[in-house]
Structures are given as C-alpha cells and as structure tokens.
Design brief:
heterodimer; A: 388 residues; alpha+beta; 7 helices; 19 strands; B: 94 residues; 2 helices; 47% helix; RNAP_Rpo3/Rpb3/RPAC1 (chain A); transcription (chain A); DNA-directed RNA polymerase activity (chain A); protein dimerization activity (chain A); Rpo3/RPB3_RNA_Pol_subunit (chain A)
Chain lengths: 388, 94
C-alpha cells in the first residue's frame, strides 16, 4: 500500500468548515416569513470539534476588514464596512447619535415677545436649530460655571413687523359671496390681506462680544468696571480668537422659519448656546440620523428563464434583476444590483429563491461637521470609553 | 468602576457605571472571541440606572486580566477601523 501523507486523507479535518456551515456562519438568511439564522456564532470554541478556531485574531481582523466609501457629500455619506461585527457597528451608530457633542441653544433670555408664538415654544424651536461651528473648540459648561467665551455662543434676535414693510407677504384673501334671494344676485369680494412676516433663522445675529442685556440690579456702588455686568462675562471678544476671525459663527441653514409675525408684533431675545450631547436632549445630536444595514446578497437557486425571467424583473420594485440574453433566444435573469434590494421579499412570493444578507453600514449625517470627521470622532470616543 | 471579584479569580462580575449597551455589547463580543473565555454576558439591572454588569468566566486565567485584554483589543480594533476609514475617505476624495 502506498504511503499517503496523513494530511491528504479525506476525513482529517482540514481546518475549514464544510460549505453549508460556513454559509450559516457568515450570513443571515431571509426567508419569506421571517429572517433565520440571525445570531452570530461568537463563541470562540464553537467549532472546536471541527478543528476550526472561531476566535478573533487581531491580525485576521486587520487583514479582512475593509472600508469602501460609496458617496460623500458635505451633508451625508454612505460607506461599507466589510468584515465587522454588528455589535461594534451598532456601538458606532449609538455613539454617533447620542454621544458626539455639538453646540445648541440652551438658554433664551426674552426681553419682548408680542408674537403669537409662546415663549417656551419659541425657545424650543430655537434650540433645535443647528449651529455651524466646530464643537471641539468649546468646553462643556457645568452648573457652577460662569458663561464665558470658552463655553458659550451668544445670538441675538430683534425683529419687528411694521406696516408697509417690504417683507410682508399677502397671506389670505377672503372671498365672500352674498346671495340676495330676490331677482338680484350680488357678489361682494372682500379682500382681507392678512399680512405675515416670517422670521427666518438668518435674523439671528452672532454677538462675538457676549451678552448685551445688563444684569439686574445694577449696583452703582460696585461700578468699578467700565463695562456694565451682563449675563455673560466674556473676557475677550470671540471675534479675536483665531478660529473665529476668519469663519464667523453662523447657523447651518439660513432659511429655517422660526416664527411668523403680524403687524406691530415684535420679538427681542438673546440666545446662549452651549455644548452638550445627544444623550441629554436630541437637539445636541450632530446627525439627522445614522443607520446601518446588512448588505443583501440575492442568490437564485435555479435557472430562471423566459417568461419567468421577465416576470421576476417586473416584480422587484427596486429593479434588482436584469435580463441577460443567453443564445438561442432564451433569456435568463441575473442579479444586477443587489445593493438596491430592500428585502421586500416580493420576489420570493412566487417560488423558491433565497436572499442572504452580508454586512454593511450606511451613515447619514447633518451638519455642523463633515460626516467623515464625525465618524472618526465617534470611534475615538469608543476608544476612550475602553480606556477607563 | 470595577468591583465584584470573588475568591475564585477565574470568574467574576464587573459592574461599570455610566455605561450602556454601546460599550457593553462590543465588549461582550470581543470577550467572546477570546479563546480563554468560557462564558461571557452582560445585563443591565435597571434601564433608569446607567449601570452594566459584565460577567466573565475563564479557563483558569484571572478574569480581570482577560477583561483588560479584551478592552485593549477593542481599542486596537477601533484604531484600525479609524485608520482604514481615513484611508478610504482620502482615496475616495482623489
């Protein structure tokens, strides 16, 4: 009998899983009624009997992990992470939503508000406006801190709606038709111009010198400083700081309608913005939202031809399938754009195909910071948590 | 804050304050991948308190060592993710 090295014997485990278990390990199946196999096999010894090491080696992770950016704008980005586990992806998502700091208006000092919008509603709306400034340049402000130029941004809003204002727009026209029920039909048109002036967010002016409202009561005896005490004590103008002299602090969208004023109504207020995290209140969340999903992989179990192929192509609402002409006039369906598949399972309703789902991540952000910076910040935050 | 080690060094519960699923789930994942770990899980005693209990049982090694190692692993994973991401973004921009 010839000597065969032991490694070539077919029943010695070669260190690889049989293909169906490999499939089970890396993919989530999406059947017509429910997804199956959603749990990750994380336990390191899970495949010990097969001789395969399921543990995470750092170098293995490094060699397998890839990032591909699909789309990158000023406001949002979409990218794929291949080879990462959903628990870490979810941690990134949670940090992006809740634990990245931003600046948002927190305290509103209202001097005069004769509009129909209540004070608290106005303050709430002001808080939700995104401010275009890098939050890393500011410190957090705790309860005992005095607001100074390191932790507060001050905005001022002073608008008044006058008669004959160029910004008035004609809002409503009331038509009244009056029928007099003898032989004469008369119509009167009443034109009631209800003028409204919409206060947009570009009316909010940045005050680099701090608050202008004097702190009451003003004690004349302690008037040692030439400047009256205000609600904030800026020791130097924010304008003079190098970061801000070139880029003044503005709001991200200048066309957000804050309130609407009728004739003779006025709003005068000052808004102080501080640094905070999304955990405390959603206004401090730097992203509109961030989400991830697994990349779908659609596998056709059988050859689909001819009328079934055209039927399949029509069924899918996001046009995942394409027809490929194989010679002799037969048509065959192929999967052209698996990324567009929204897993609606419309195609499975007929017969048996299968959808598998692999792993990708999409993040959309709004904002003050460009999205890639946000993501790196998020990763840094996760690291810092580990260090504790 | 870590506390709650028992006489038996190879199995203990770590109670972390001011944490939630964000860190706990990723730590649990990296702990599971470590071959020295026989059991690992986390629980949140009450959702209103920001407290997480992570339970680690190992094959003989002291549990705090294993826990620290997996925290280090998670940090390295994050650093690697960050550098790969930066490369990908610069490649995309060019």
């Amino acid at each position: 009998m010839a000597k065969v090295p032991i490694w070539d014997l077919p029943d010695v485990p070669t260190g690889e899983l049989p293909p169906h278990i490999q499939l089970q390990r890396t993919r989530v199946f999406c059947k017509s009624d429910a997804p199956t196999n959603t749990e990750n096999i994380q336990y390191s010894g899970a495949y010990a009997s097969m001789g395969v090491d399921n543990s995470l080696r750092l170098d293995q992770f490094r060699s397998n992990f890839k990032v591909e950016v699909m789309r990158l704008n000023e406001d949002d980005m979409e990218f794929d992470m291949i080879g990462i586990d959903p628990s870490i992806a979810n941690a990134f998502r949670r940090i992006l939503i809740a634990e990245l700091p931003t600046m948002a208006i927190e305290k509103v000092l209202i001097a005069n508000n004769t509009s129909v919008i209540q004070d608290e509603v106005l303050a709430h709306r002001l808080g939700l406006i995104p401010i275009k400034v890098d939050p890393r340049l500011f410190d957090y402000m705790s309860e005992n801190d005095v607001p100074n130029e390191k932790n507060t941004i001050v905005f001022k809003l002073h608008v008044r709606c006058e008669r004959g204002d160029a910004r008035l727009t004609e809002k409503r026209r009331l038509t009244v038709v009056v029928l007099i029920f003898n032989w004469l039909v008369t119509e009167w048109y009443f034109k009631m111009a209800m003028a409204c002036y919409a206060v947009t967010s570009d009316e909010l002016k940045w005050l680099p010198n701090g608050s202008e409202f004097p702190l009451a009561p003003e004690n004349s005896a302690s008037n040692s400083t030439s400047r009256p005490k205000t609600y904030t004590s800026f020791s130097c103008s924010q304008d003079s700081l190098p970061q801000f002299s070139k880029n003044p602090i503005t709001l991200k969208h200048p066309d957000i309608i804050i309130a609407k004023l009728g004739l003779g109504q006025e709003i005068e207020l000052e808004a102080h913005a501080v640094k905070g995290m999304g955990k405390t209140h959603a206004k401090w969340s730097p992203v509109a939202t961030a989400w991830y999903r697994m990349l779908p992989e659609v596998v056709l179990l059988q050859e689909i031809e001819d009328e079934k192929a055209t039927e399949l192509v029509q069924k899918c609402p996001t046009k995942v399938f394409d027809i490929e002409d194989v010679g002799k006039g037969k048509k065959r369906a192929t999967v052209a754009r698996p990324r567009d598949c929204t897993l609606c399972r419309e195609c499975i309703r007929g017969e048996g195909w299968e959808n598998y789902v692999a792993l990708r991540l999409t993040i959309e952000s709004t904002g003050a910071l460009p999205p890639e910076v946000l993501f790196t910040e998020a990763v840094k935050i996760l690291e810092d948590k580990c260090e504790r | 804050m870590e506390l709650g080690s028992v006489q038996d060094q190879s199995a203990s519960t770590f109670s972390l304050t001011d944490e939630d699923h964000t860190l706990a789930n990723s730590l649990r994942f990296t702990l599971n991948q470590d071959p020295r770990v026989t059991f690992c899980g986390y629980s949140i005693p009450h959702p209103s308190d920001a407290r997480v209990n992570i339970r680690v049982q190992t094959t003989g090694d002291p549990a705090s060592e294993v826990f620290k190692d997996s925290c280090q692993d998670l940090m390295l994973i994050c650093q690697h993710v960050r550098s790969t991401f930066d490369h990908a973004v610069t490649n995309f921009k060019n």
